[in-house]
Amino acid sequence: MSVHVQDDRERDSDSQIPRLDFELTDACDHRCGHCYNVWTADEGDPNASFPTGRPLETPDFKGLMSKAVDQSGAWHLTITGGEPMIRKDAMDIIEHACAIATSVTLITNGSHITQEVAEKFAKWGLGHVQLTLLAGDRDKHNALKGAVCFDDTVRSALFLADAGVHVQCCYVAMKANEDQFEPVMELCAALGIRSISYNRMSPTGRAIHHIARLMPTIDQIEADLDFAEKRGPGWGLSVATAMPIPPCLVDIDKYEWVRFGFCSTGSNSPNIVIDARGNVRSCNLSSGVLGNLLDDDWETVFANPYPRTFKATVPDMCRGCAYETSCQGGCKESGFATFGSHTHPEPLLWLGSDPSRLEALTADVTQKAPPKMKRGADTSHGPR
Ligand code: SF4
Ligand code: SF4
Fold first, then answer.
1. How does residue 373 score in pLDDT terms, banded at 50, 70 and 90?
2. How many angstroms separate the alpha carbon of residue 284 from the centre of ligand 2?
3. How far apart are CA 322 and CA 341, in angstroms?
4. Which secondary-structure segment (H or E) carries 76?
5. pLDDT given at position 3
6. Distance from the CA of 330 to the center of ligand 1, in angstroms?
7. Ligand 1 near 349 CB (within 6 A)
8. How many C-beta atoms lie closer than 10 Å to residue 357's C-beta?
9. Is the CB–ligand 2 distance for residue 144 below 6 Å?
10. DSSP one-letter code for 342
11. Strand order in the sheet with 195-200
């Protein structure tokens, strides 16, 4: 998931942006119920029919990355997926990203990082690797990931730390791990991890069918943030919220240690993403394609009015709010994915302000059992 930060560096033209995300593949070997990838939506869902298909071959994808970087001015790249390390040519592509950008972050599920891989990352100057830890408890983590992967992730963190690569923890707050943020912070401190990206579940893709069992409560989120505020400084563990926390639900001003960000779409540091076929979207959780960089230049794709219109579009309840132009209603793509509208309050806002709405929501949006657990003792075998 994305970190929602502003970047105020001067730019040469209106189409220049500081960062870009690349989705190397749609595939993933984990089965998270909270997966936000828009191509995991069911037929009939608002995110349905997202164009998928064969990814570009290695030279074409590397060429696309170079074109995007040259034309957009982006200096920070994030490599993500799906699970990016599943691509056979993942290491080739990551090395290329490190060569063409000042700073690169890899977001990975942690099942494919060996010592050798970590050492290569260090050699190429890969800045950060973000690994997901959903629980300090092995079984709870594995159950939420739908895969036996906790030990792999911990091992990956140690390999990366040994190699000198900065590790960031991605935590997703859900009802099913409501007692796990404290153990995750403790585990991070023990592993030498210095930063946590705190995401409250933001349902798009298949996740809209797991809202009833996974959507966190506001009390739970506030308790997590209170703990981060209390213990983060002593452990030297920075905590930043990646998915926006609407200030009408949580008093964000009472926190000094925890950093908060809002939606970056339409800002001067948008989280624009390019998929494995060259399709460009305004962020990972958006299923709206702005254009394709194989067909058009960056300036043409960037001129698509979608992000600016999106930024100005807020739910009625947000009109006149002091945070109307900053918070903008939280994560509106999750509002679209769940309710089919960018002006409908998104699920956290909708349920957070009145939990009794869950019954009506789940009558409209089919809810499912957890995805089946993928078995396998150890998946840590490096990129395939
Ligand atoms: S903009 Fe909307 S969601 Fe954000 S704080 Fe105001 S009312 Fe709440
Ligand atoms: S819609 Fe905004 S808040 Fe939601 S993921 Fe996209 S950039 Fe982030």
1. confident
2. 8
3. 23
4. strand 76-80
5. 41
6. 7
7. yes
8. 14
9. no
10. S
11. 238-241, 195-200, 166-173, 128-132, 103-108, 76-80, 19-23, 273-274, 279-281, 289-292
Tokens coding 216: 């966190």
At 6, the amino acid letter reads Q
Give 19-297+304-373's CATH code, choosing from 3.20.20.70, 3.40.50.720, 3.40.50.300, 2.50.20.10. 3.20.20.70
Token pair for 372:
């089946």
In this prediction, residues 47-67 reach a mean pLDDT of 96
Going from N- to C-terminal start, the domains of the chain cover: 19-297+304-373
CB 186 within 8 A of CB 237: no
What is the chain's mean pLDDT, rounded? 94
CA distance 119 to 165: 8
Structure tokens at 134: 């959903």
pTM above 0.85, yes or no: yes
pLDDT in tens, 341-353: 999 999 999 999 9
pLDDT value at 36 more than 70: yes
Give the other-Cβ count within 10 Å of 56's Cβ: 17
The alpha-helical segments, DSSP class H, found in 31-174 are 58-72, 90-100, 115-124, 138-145, 150-163
Residue 20: CB partners within 8 Å, gap ≥ 6? Answer: 68, 69, 72, 74, 76, 77, 78, 272, 273, 274
Distance (Å, whole) CA 151 – CA 148: 8
> 220-240 pLDDT, tens per residue?
999 999 999 999 999 999 999
pLDDT the model gives residue 14: 87
**Burial of 137 (C-beta count, 10 Å sphere; 0-12/13-18/19+):** middle
Question: Which ligand has the shortest distance to the CA of 317?
Answer: 1
- Token pair of 97 as six digits: 């990203």
The verdict on the CB of residue 21 being under 6 Å from ligand 2 is no
Check if the beta carbon of residue 79 is closer than 8 Å to that of residue 93: yes
pLDDT tens-digit readout, 99-139: 999 999 999 999 999 999 999 999 999 999 999 999 999 99
- Res. 319: pLDDT tops 60: yes
| CA gap 120, 251 in Å, rounded | 43
> What's the 135 CA to ligand 2 centre distance in angstroms?
24
Overall average pLDDT of the 175-183 stretch: 98
